[in-house]
Amino acid sequence: MSVAAALALALGVALDALVGEPSTRFHPVAWFGRAVGRADRPWRHPRLAGALVAFALPLAAAAVVAASVALPSLLVAGPAALAAGAAVAGLWVFVASSRRALVSTAADVLATLADDPDAARDDVRALVGRDTDSLSVADLRSAAVESAAENLADGLVAPLTAFALGAQVSLPVAAAAAAWVKAVNTLDSMLGYPSKPHGTASARLDDAVMWLPARVSAFLLAVAGGDIGALHRAAAWARDPPSPNSGWPMATLAAVLDVRLAKPGVYALHPTADPPTPERARRGVRIVDRAAVLGVALTGVCAWV
């Protein structure tokens, strides 16, 4: 089973490098988002309904994925079943995780910012949920770097961690675990706001699920940046953001770069430092990319073992 998991991971990573994000029309995460959209409405008992949604929708997604990976073994036998199952699981790894998009989007924003700040202000909305109209150039640069670090945890390390843990049981469980985490994260991104009481359960579930991936991401960033001591320094600011988890990768990257990463009026990570210069911001994205590669390699080792 370790061979199949490693093959699935390799296929998923290769597809991400070659293809990037699939079209929304054909993206299972977008399909899942449409299902979540139907649950995003007023409920008579919003917290109870939200708890049922947080339980049922990710579980349903995981069940579909597990069944699709297990199906080839029911239709064929021998090495063909192994290869077919690994191929299907690899497609799900591709769907559930992303390295190319998280790095290229941040890099594109930084490149555009140098020539056309107004266009960059529009582009950065793909990365952040904050109002960008009043942000300065330095704030926009900080937002791009922060988001790259945070999305490393959400978009790559979390599903791959789940895949590696599930691979200790079976390949269908590994793919299902990655899909379940991706579904939980999608629920939180769509429903997890204070204005939506039916999203409270989704937000709390995401907080629990992301505890380990956020801290693993911080470790990977420190290693990729060649500054393991950044983890100790980051601990002083990591709890400043409202999220109990997102502060860890962001604060670690701020420590590695020795810059201030801030969301005006909300938090300032490494507050005594200067905002990132263009060169340090670009270095930050490169560090995120190296950390992503390390995360993939670590997942491969865990899946193989």
UniProtKB/TrEMBL annotation:
Which compartments does it reside in? Cell membrane
Q: Which UniProt keywords apply?
A: Cell membrane, Cobalamin biosynthesis, Ligase, Membrane, Transmembrane, Transmembrane helix
Q: How does it sit in the membrane?
A: Multi-pass membrane protein
Q: Does the record's keyword annotation contain Transcription?
A: no
In the UniProt record, which is one GO cellular component term? plasma membrane
A family per Pfam: CobD_Cbib
Q: In which pathway does it act?
A: Cofactor biosynthesis; adenosylcobalamin biosynthesis
A biological-process GO annotation: cobalamin biosynthetic process
Task: List the Gene Ontology MF annotations in alphabetical order.
Answer: ABC-type vitamin B12 transporter activity; ligase activity; threonine-phosphate decarboxylase activity
InterPro entries (alphabetical): Cobalamin_biosynth_CobD/CbiB
Residue stretches spanning the membrane = 48-67, 74-95
Q: What's this protein's function?
A: Converts cobyric acid to cobinamide by the addition of aminopropanol on the F carboxylic group.
| Family classification | Belongs to the CobD/CbiB family.
How is this protein named in the record? Probable cobalamin biosynthesis protein CobD
Could you tell me which species this protein originates from?
Halarchaeum rubridurum
